């Protein structure tokens, strides 16, 4: 092969998602579940946030300040999640941040979902933040075949499926990626990425803490 025939591959517009295990999940889980169910018991409506109630079915959602509760375990969970987001943001943006830049991650909105049998959340994205996350506090029976409860992420390349032949096989063909959660996992993703919670058919409650985060430089 001559120099004239060298083909360089350039990957652009990738969408990074990150999956990890929540630090100290075994220690935090029961205390956080207690906090969730205590607040759920005070709800006067299923969707306390009042955001898109028709997009949600058979689930309870808190107001958007759950991780601001004055509870030591909730505060520790918020601190740990902010550290995870900052580590990810710093890694992704390493080539774009000034060498001497310092930054902090701030969770500006957070809420729980307690999803019962038949519950789901239609496709949506989160504005006014840079990173979003879902902490699977108790995935319930979502990891059992046929019980649903997966989070589905949608290909942001809006025209990626307008034509298909063998040359487009690398695109995946379905335009979605389904994530099966396990106990204590955290998935962190860019705010523009559309996602949904597929219908859940387990007997145990599926409990997650979701959050929106911004990065501030100083």
UniProtKB/TrEMBL annotation:
Keywords: Coiled coil. Residues 67-94 form a coiled coil. This is Uncharacterized protein (TIGR02466 family). It comes from Marinomonas alcarazii.
